[in-house]
């Protein structure tokens, strides 16, 4: 029964890819040939484990020879397309058939799905590449350099006092931050002029809420009439910072997320309500979206890595010397210009059992509030007076909400929030 199931899956995946190739009017292989190639790969694995490798290799060679003969015939007929997509897809489907034949069904299905999507997205992908500027290409290459070249060669060892400076861990945080920013940057580039105020604020918050604030503040200096719309974008970008922070906590310290999610979400909800109230009367207005810089530049990445290492060291030293209360002062200062560094360093210290969950999320929330004050200062220097009024009011309400959370939110540790404390209380009540 397992053999027949493997053949059926190979048939289905071959039909999927073959359907796409037939729709594109491929002369090499289509809706009949691709299923046969996939089934052939599966059959090559049924001869026994001792000969399986040789049979798969011989089958792959046979498929390659047939594809070569087909292309030679096309050359002689004067109808030759230099593209190799169908040929590579045929070889891939043979390999998928072999994988399914040896029980690797999951990877085979995933790879076939990816192949079908890539084949069908030809025009879209080519259009995306054609639309890329030199800056966009540098962003992709820099991301590859940051994540695929630099990260693997760094030593995964701890150096210095307080046992917190690990080059590999520090750069891994750089990759995380650059990756989040690149997601927003790519979405921004793909959507282009269709980015409205709401989406512009969301993507701006993912890329850089501070840069978004500065850009829109400058626009209002010459065009005060767009101050309300600019305030909305800035407020949305600042609200998304809370989402960004939750993502960072979830990646670095999932146990802390179980405690921090609710208070941080309350802060986010307050700012979302403000966004809705501000959006309703000005929803028909528009403004020019900013031209965001490449977020994967090497120098800023190195600078963030250095900043993160400094904050990580200072937080560990301050806690050791002055206790947990010193962390709030550090959060207030470092959060002015960068929330990510204090968020990641605090999450790491929680993972290392150096900071309690109740202290950790409060430190992070205080950093996000401090960042609001910094952006309000940037608006005061660069923006219109009308924009400043909007920002002071909306950020002031958010700051009050944050202060109430810091002061009155009940304290739970990660274990009790997961259910242990609840069960204890329930048993006591019973």
From TrEMBL:
Q: Where is the MgtC/SapB/SrpB/YhiD N-terminal domain?
A: 8-126
User: Would the keyword Nucleotide-binding be found if you checked this record's keyword annotation?
Assistant: no
Among InterPro entries, the record links this protein to: DUF4010 (IPR025105), MgtC_SapB_SrpB_YhiD_N (IPR049177)
Instruction: List, for all copies, the residue spans of the domain called DUF4010.
Output: 175-383
Q: Where are the transmembrane segments?
A: 31-47, 54-72, 92-119, 139-155, 170-188, 195-214, 226-247, 259-280, 300-319, 326-347, 359-382, 387-409
Name of a matching Pfam family: MgtC
Question: Which superkingdom, per the lineage?
Answer: Bacteria
Q: Provide this UniProt record's keywords sorted from A to Z.
A: Membrane, Transmembrane, Transmembrane helix
What is the name of this protein?
Answer: MgtC/SapB family protein
From which organism does this entry originate?
Aporhodopirellula aestuarii
């Amino acid at each position: 029964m397992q053999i027949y199931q493997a053949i059926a899956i190979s048939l289905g995946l071959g039909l999927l890819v073959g359907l796409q190739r037939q729709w594109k009017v491929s002369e090499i292989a289509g809706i009949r040939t691709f299923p046969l190639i996939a089934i052939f790969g599966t059959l090559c694995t049924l001869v026994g484990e001792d000969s399986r490798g040789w049979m798969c290799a011989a089958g792959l060679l046979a498929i390659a020879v047939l594809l070569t003969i087909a292309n030679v015939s096309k050359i002689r007929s004067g109808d030759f397309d230099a593209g190799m997509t169908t040929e590579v897809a045929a070889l891939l489907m043979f390999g998928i058939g072999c994988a399914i034949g040896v029980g690797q069904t999951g990877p085979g299905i995933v790879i076939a799905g990816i192949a079908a999507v890539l084949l069908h997205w030809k025009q879209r992908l080519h259009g995306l590449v054609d639309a890329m500027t030199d800056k966009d290409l540098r962003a992709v290459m820099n991301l590859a350099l940051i994540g695929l070249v630099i990260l693997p060669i760094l030593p995964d060892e701890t150096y210095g006092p307080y046992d917190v400076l690990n080059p590999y861990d520090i750069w891994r945080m750089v990759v995380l931050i650059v990756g989040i920013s690149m997601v927003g940057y790519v979405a921004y580039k793909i959507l282009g002029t269709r980015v409205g105020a709401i989406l512009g604020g969301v993507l701006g918050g993912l890329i850089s809420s501070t840069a978004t604030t500065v850009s829109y503040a400058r626009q209002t200096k010459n065009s005060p009439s767009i101050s309300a719309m600019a305030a909305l974008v800035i407020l949305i970008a600042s609200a998304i910072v809370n989402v960004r922070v939750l993502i960072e906590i979830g990646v670095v310290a999932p146990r802390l997320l179980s405690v921090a999610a609710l208070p941080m979400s309350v802060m986010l909800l307050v700012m979302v309500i403000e966004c809705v109230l501000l959006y309703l009367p000005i929803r028909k207005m528009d403004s020019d979206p900013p031209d965001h810089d490449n977020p994967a530049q090497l120098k800023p990445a190195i600078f963030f890595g250095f900043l993160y290492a400094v904050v990580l060291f200072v937080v560990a030293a301050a806690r050791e010397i002055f206790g947990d209360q010193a962390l709030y002062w550090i959060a207030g200062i470092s959060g002015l210009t960068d929330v990510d560094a204090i968020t990641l360093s605090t999450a790491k210290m929680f993972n290392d059992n150096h900071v309690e969950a109740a202290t950790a999320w409060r430190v992070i929330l205080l950093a996000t509030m401090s960042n609001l004050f910094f952006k309000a200062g940037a608006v005061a220097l660069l923006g219109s007076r009308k924009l400043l009024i909007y920002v002071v009011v909306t950020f002031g309400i958010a700051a009050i909400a944050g202060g109430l959370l810091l002061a009155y939110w009940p304290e739970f540790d990660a274990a009790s929030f997961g259910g242990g404390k609840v069960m204890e209380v329930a048993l006591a009540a019973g």
